[in-house]
């Protein structure tokens, strides 16, 4: 039974979440107009369980980012592009078949350069598909020392990929980027991030493990290999000279990434942490992290074969395919978080673009919204922490959770504007929050988000704007 239909419009402002130091400088103010249509009840029962296609309750809002295009280049040298990167994917004949699909999600045949490094030649009766990166067989490493009792010798082979890649002598290379066969890279964002750095200087760029227990054992000073790390050409040229010696000097270190890290230290080069590289040393569901991603382009996701599927009702591979495809329509905005508040209802909305929306029937501060829900445990011991970022409890009580929506579809509505639609996850019958202040929020079935496409130079403009403001 359809009851009263009411329509209201509110215009509110949200800003992209930003670290407090940047906050006063960041001029990306997103004007959000929310149009709430009626929460018409279509049955005598609480409507929150029923999803009616013909009568969807939905939220709709617009992000209109006011960003002018900046075409100026840094110096006379051409901007870094995908052709300047050589990938080195560590794999083995045994793991490749099962993980190939993850690599092919992001690999662009004839565009991306690099190789999958195998422990041996694949069997002759296997035809190597041209959708996969071409393979190389790593050199024999039996002459090196390896003394880590809880590790495996193949770490040496992995450590040498950067050297063997360099020694191929490929033309016009600015960066060597290492990753695993269960790493998914977001290429445009990788290029954006590396483009900020001068490849003629020595740079070692990547990220730590999210689990403190890992960082304590393996070091905070290294870039974790699965999350991917980038070595500038200038650094690679120095590294290859001493790497083999380092491998023996650091025979007791567990992983290839640790050995490379130790060797980089000998050159006096520190790790440059970029927050978009994700080792994903997390057990369980990475939801919390991706729903409250730091303000940084998403560069990589590792352990994609061990994590729970990102979307309900999809496999791990299909979930990632969905995220990668959505990212194609606006690479810079993928999983970027925005907040908005509806003061007429005292509602808070947190959007992780292309992934999820959270609707809270209360006013929740930015500080809380930007703190990831702990939907995971630590990597090694599945403990409740600590992690290298703060987390908040993801309560089993539905009244202590926001109403959660997941991406349904993304489309380019016009040049420079996307529309993403998020659908509510249906609660199990009998579960869900029945409290009066929750009822209206649980009636919302769909959230539409319109957003101006993210300008890749926005990240740089933030830096530039801060300079300008400081001088004011
Ligand atoms: C990348 O830049 C180089 C110049 O350094 C150019 O030759 C190449 O075509 C560019 N590649 C792409 C994919 O734009
Ligand atoms: C890559 O290019 C070669 C020729 O340059 C072509 O034969 C091959 O089909 C291309 N591969 C893909 C996957 O497009
Ligand atoms: C390739 O040959 C081996 C035996 O040499 C066999 O075990 C394997 O199943 C074959 N693989 C394919 C894809 O035919
Ligand atoms: C690697 O080298 C050692 C000794 O030099 C040799 O015994 C071994 O067979 C080699 N392994 C491979 C896979 O070629
Ligand atoms: C929203 O919250 C404010 C302050 O907590 C309160 O005064 C106001 O009545 C609330 N508005 C609604 C619509 O609940
Ligand atoms: C729920 O929405 C209806 C219709 O907009 C409104 O009359 C009612 O006050 C709301 N209830 C709460 C608890 O906010
Ligand atoms: C929300 O988006 C869907 C397409 O994804 C569209 O069918 C629907 O009309 C949109 N609603 C509004 C209010 O824009
Ligand atoms: C940043 O500002 C500097 C100095 O004003 C300018 O030379 C440079 O081109 C700017 N970079 C970008 C990406 O806007």
UniProtKB/TrEMBL annotation:
Where do transmembrane segments lie in this chain? 21-39
Q: Which Gene3D superfamilies match?
A: 3.90.550.50
Record keywords? Membrane, Transmembrane, Transmembrane helix
Identify the InterPro entries for this entry.
DUF604
Q: Does the keyword Transmembrane apply?
A: yes
Annotated protein name in UniProt: Uncharacterized protein
Q: Which organism is it from?
A: Camellia sinensis (Tea plant)
